[in-house]
Fold this protein.
Amino acid sequence: MTGTPLKGLRRTWLALLLVTVGAAATACSTVPAKLPAAADQPWGTLATASADPGASTTASGEDMPSEPRNLVPPMDPLPGPGSFPPGGSLQNILDRGYLRVGVSRDTQLRGAWNPVERQYEGFDVDIARRIADALFGPDNAGEADTIRYVPVSYSERLPAIENRRVDIVISTLTYTEARARRVGLSQAYFTAHPRLLTRRDPTRASTASQASPVAAAFADLAEKRVCAPRATTSLANLRQKLVQFGGFEIEGSLNELSDCLVAFQQGTVDAVAANDASLVGMLEQDATAELGDAEIGGQEYYSVGFTRGDTELAGFVNGVLEGIRRDEAVWAGLCEAWAVAEMPCEGSRPPEPQWSR
Amino acid sequence: MTTREIWPRQPSDHPRPGTAVRAEPGGVDAEPTDGEAAPRVTPDAGHGGAGSGRHGRVDTGGHRSGWFGRDWFTTPRRLWICAGVCVVLCVIAATATFSMAQRRAHAVTAISGAVMERTEASWDIHRSLARAAAAEAETFIGPPPEGSQAPATPRSGAAEGAAGTSREGIYHEFDQALLTAAGAMVRAGAGISPAAGAQVCPPARAQPDPRPPVTEPAAQAAAALTTLVCLTPTYQELIGEARANNRAGNSVGQAYLRSANALMNDHLLPASATLARSHTTEQARQFERATRSRDIVWLAVAAGLGLAALIGTQILSVLWTRRWANPAMVAATLLVLGGMVWPLAALAGERSALASASESHQLRGLLARANHLSLRAEADVLYWRIAQGGDIAFDDDFDRTAAQLACAASGSATTEVPGELCGPATFRQLDAGIISLIKEAWDAGSAAIGSVAAEAPAPDSSSPARSSPGPGASGDRSAPDDLQAVPVALERFAALDSALTGADTDARARFDAEVARADRALWGVAIGALLLFGGAAALVAIGLEPRIREYR
C-alpha cells in the first residue's frame, strides 16, 4: 500500500469529521423561547389615589360634627361681576369664565350624575348654580358653561380644595372642627340627621326591650356588617357606636355611598350608615330598603368648602347662602324640589350662623 | 511487515482442521499469507482449542490460561466480542436517535399544536376581556338627549364619543368579546388538571383570598383559570346591574360599573395574565425540549462509539485474520456514518427553523402585550370620561399604561429607575408604523383625558421610550376643551388595534411556516435512524459471522 491512498483516506475521514462536528455544533444549542422582558411583565393593578390623609391622621373624636362658628361674615350686598377686587379670587374665576365645583357623582337627590338626563342634579347642584349665577351676574344666569362640575368622592373633597382642583366643594360636606382647620367652610346650608338604611323586613321582631331606639337599632345589627364610606363623619359616628354598643362589624373602606349601596344590594353588608339627606337617595333606588327611625348621632350641618384663608370667596359664598336662608320661599323652593316623604324639609333648615367677631 | 510479525498467532488462532478458508484470488477477502501456510492445529492438553479454556490454570511456562487468561482471548472470541460491541452500540445508537427524533418531533408538533393553541387561547382571553371592558365603558358614554343642559364635561365628550356607534352595536361587541373569552377559556384549560388548583372561587370584592397561595406553575394556572371561570359571570352580572340602573336613571349604576371595572382590573386581567404566562412558559419548555443540546451530545457519543467500534473491529479483524477488508463491515461503517450525519444535519435544520419560529413567538408575545396595554389605555380614557377623576385614578393609570406601551413597542420593559421610563431593550422594536400609531394614540388619549397632557412633552416618534414620566398626577387635569377628543382617541386606538392584529397575523404565518420547516427537517429521521443503525448491526453480524465460522 502506498502513502497516497492513505493520505486520501485520511483527508476523507478528516472532512467527514469536520462535517459531523460542524453539524453537531450548529445543532448543539438550545433555542431560547422565553418571552423577552418587554413582553413578560406582570399585569399591574389599577393605579389608585392615596386615601385622604386627614381620614387616617385625625382622631375620630376630633372629627365629629359641630355647629359652624367663627364664620367669615357675608358680603352684603353681594358685589356684581364688574365690582370684584382686581387680582382677587372672584375676579380670577370671572376671568376664567367658569366656576369649578366639586360635587358628588352619585349621591342621588343631593348631587349625582343623571345618566338619563345626562346632567348633574340635586340640592347641592342647585346651590352651586345659585352661587355661579351670583358670580357671573344676571346676564349669564342659567348658562351651562359657567360651571364645570368635578366629581369628587367623599375622601377626595378636602384634597380637591387643597390641591386647587376646584374652587368650591358642595357635596354633603359636614362641618367639623378638624375640617375647618384644613379648608375654609361656609355657614350651614342644610341640616341632616345620621340614620341607618336597612333591609325592609316585615317579620322582624320588635326590640322594645332595649333602653333606647338607637340601642334597639344597633341590637338588630348584632353580628351584622354596617357600611359607611371612608373619610366621612358617618364612619366616625359609627365607630363611636361600635365602642358604645358593640356587636356589629364596620365596612369602612369603600369610597362612595353608592359603593355601600352596591355592597348592600349584593348582600355583603346589612346596613348603611349615613345622613338621611344621602340615604333617601338610596331609598329611591332600592325598594327593598328602609330608613331606620332612630337618629344614630347628633345633627350635622352641610357647608360649602373652599380654600382656607380665602375670605373674599368665603364672604361671597356666605352672602349667597345667607340670602337663601333668609328668604323662606327660596330655601323652601330649593328644598322641596328634592324632598321625599322620608325626609321633609321642616327639619332640614340651616341654623342661625355664628359669624366671627 | 506482516500481521504475523505484529501479533504472532496463538495456537488457538488456527482454523479448525477441515475448515475451508476461502481464498478468493484477487478478492479483498484473500488471505495475505506471504507464502506462509496456516499452521497445523496441534491438540495440546495445556493449550486447549477454542472454548477449551474453562478452567484457569498455569502451564509449565508460567502462562495463565483458562478464564480471561491469555489463551482465553482467542481470535474467534475476540471477534465475537467485537461483533457484540458493534451490534450493541448500533442498537443503542438506533434507539437513542429514534427516541430523540421522536421526542423532538412531538415537541415540534406541540409547539404548533396543543401548546400553541393554549398559549393563543390565554392571549385571546386577555385580549377579549380587555376589549369587553373597553366596549362596556363606551356604552356608558352615550349621546345626550335633545335640548338638555350641558353643564358637565363627561357629557360633552361622551356625546361625541359615541357618535356613529350605536349602543346596540357596542353591546354586541361586548357580548362577542365575552363569548370569545369564554371559548378561549375552554381551549386554554384543555391541558390543565382540575386537581392542580384549589377548586374554590376567589371573592369578587377586595377581601382576603381564602385559597392557599400557590407557587407551582401548574397550580397557578389552575387557580387563574378558576378565578376566570368563577368571576367572569360575576363581572357580567355587575355590568347587567350597571346597565339596568343606568337605564332607570339611578346613579348607583356607575358604582356597579366601577365595581365591574375593579373586578376586571384587579382579578380577571391579572388571572388571564398569569394563565398566559403559564402557557408561554410551557411553550418555551417545548422549544427547549425540541432543541435540547444534550441530545446532540448523546447522539454524537452513541454514533461515534459505534463508528469507532466498527473501525476498530475492522482494523483488529485485519490484524487477526490477515484479511484486508470486509465489505459488510465497510457498508456497516458507512451506514453508521450516515446514521450520524443525517440526524445531525436534520437537527441543525430543525434548530435553525425553530430559532426563527422562536423569534416569531417572542414577537407575538410582545404584540399581545402591546395589544392588551392599548386596550387598557383606551378603557382608561373612557372610564376617566365616565368617572371624571375619582379615587380610581384612570388618568394615572392611562399615563402608566401608555408609557408601558411605548416601552414595549421599543422592545423594553418599564423601569423603576427615577428619571428613566424604559429599561434596556430586550427585543427588537416593533415596526415604525406601529410605533407611530402608538404615539398618535397616546397623544389622542391624553388630549381626551385632559389639558394637562398638552403641557407635558408629547412622545417623540423617533424615541418611543422617552425618559419623562408623562403627565402629572390625578387631579391636576382639567377637562379638555376639544369635544372631538374622545372620538379621535377611539379612532386612534382602533387603528392601533387593527395594526397590532395585522402584525400578529403576519407573525403567526411566519411562525407556522418555520415550525412546518422544522417538522419537515425531522421527517423520516426516526425511522431512518432505525433502518441505518439496525442495518449496520445486521451487516456487522453478516460480516463477522464467516470469520468466526472459520474457527469452528
Q: What stands out?
A: The longest strand of chain B covers residues 422-425. Chain B is about 65% helix and 0% strand. The mean pLDDT of chain B is 75. The two ends of chain B are 28 Å apart (CA to CA).
